[in-house]
Design brief:
Layout: H1 2-21, E1 30-42, E2 59-70, E3 73-77, E4 96-99, H2 104-110, E5 118-122, H3 128-131, E6 141-145, H4 146-150, H5 167-170, E7 176-179, E8 183-184, E9 191-195, E10 204-209, E11 215-218, H6 226-231, H7 241-258, E12 261-263
Parallel strand pairs: 3-5, 5-6, 6-7, 11-12
Antiparallel strand pairs: 1-2, 1-4, 2-3, 8-9, 9-10, 10-11
């Protein structure tokens, strides 16, 4: 019986690897842009590491969004801070301050994309700083981890979860795509949503396999700064420390195995790893 169960486990593993590595159709041309979706100014970064590595330090977290063109289809990855913040002064006395200079539609216009052309909005996880402008794209399918989606029904909502930001999908007026595990977004192996639980139960990263630049790995909030990878510091507000560390290891292993450019979405030093907007990576 043990041998039979072991064989089943091996078979399941091989099947999952085959799914991940065998696309069902050829991938069209890919293009990737980074959008500026705000800044988060933090007076004490100690909350982002339980190893005391950030104690007493100040810092800025960039709020990045990304547009991926897959042939004639467009995917928006994360939607940043709410557009209502534009024009509002940063609260200098707050422990955490947020600011936004431009909304996503304004930036899309610069590269000739209309909001209604966004077919899918992919979300790394359920926190407000990644969902702030999601409702602007209510004609798009919202692609999000299934376990994270359930938190929008909780009363009261968990930390940093704001149900109003996904109202079109909560009301059933917009299409929803709930993801469990990894997802080959276009069924051709070119863009893969990767399950990376820990920060939240449904946390995800995004792998984009560009033809010229090579693979790019967008971190979601698996880590917030590169220093988290060095010190293995985990935010105290994360869902699960062990899962976070396991996802860190997977993130690094994928980046190393594919020789991918790892882009930590909140780390300002990683902005330059992609071309400056409105230029794109291919």
């Amino acid at each position: 019986m043990k041998t039979f169960k072991f064989a089943l486990a091996i078979g399941a593993t091989v099947a999952s690897l085959s799914f991940a590595s065998t696309p069902t159709r050829a991938a069209p041309d890919l293009e990737l842009w980074r959008l500026d979706c705000g800044d988060v100014v933090v007076k004490d970064l100690s909350m982002f590491s339980d190893t005391f590595a950030s104690a007493g330090k100040k810092g800025v977290l960039t709020d990045s969004c990304y547009v991926i063109r897959h042939g004639g289809d467009y995917l928006l990855w994360d939607t940043g801070l709410p557009a209502g913040l534009i024009g509002k002064a940063l609260d200098q006395d707050a422990p955490i301050g947020v600011s936004l200079n431009s909304d996503i539609p304004t930036q899309l216009k610069q590269i000739g994309i209309k909001p209604e052309q966004i077919a899918t909005v992919g979300i790394s996880h359920n926190h407000f700083d990644h969902l702030g402008q999601a409702a602007t794209f209510s004609k798009a399918t919202l692609m999000i981890g299934a376990v994270d989606w359930q938190t929008f029904h909780d009363n009261p909502p968990p930390f940093a979860v704001v149900p109003d930001l996904v109202k079109p999908w909560l009301d059933g007026r917009a299409k929803l795509d709930l993801v469990t595990g990894d997802r080959d977004v276009f069924d051709d192996g070119s863009v893969i949503m990767l399950s990376m639980p820990g920060h939240t139960k449904g946390e995800a990263a995004l792998l984009v396999k560009l033809a010229k630049m090579g693979p790019v790995l967008l971190s979601g909030d698996v880590v917030h700064f590169e220093d988290n990878l060095v010190t293995r510091g985990v935010p105290g507000f994360n869902e699960n420390r062990a899962d976070t560390l396991a996802s860190m290891e997977r993130l690094e292993a994928i980046a190393a195995g594919l020789n991918a450019t790892l882009v930590i979405q909140h780390d300002p030093t990683h902005i330059s790893r992609l071309p400056a907007f409105p230029e794109s990576a291919r």
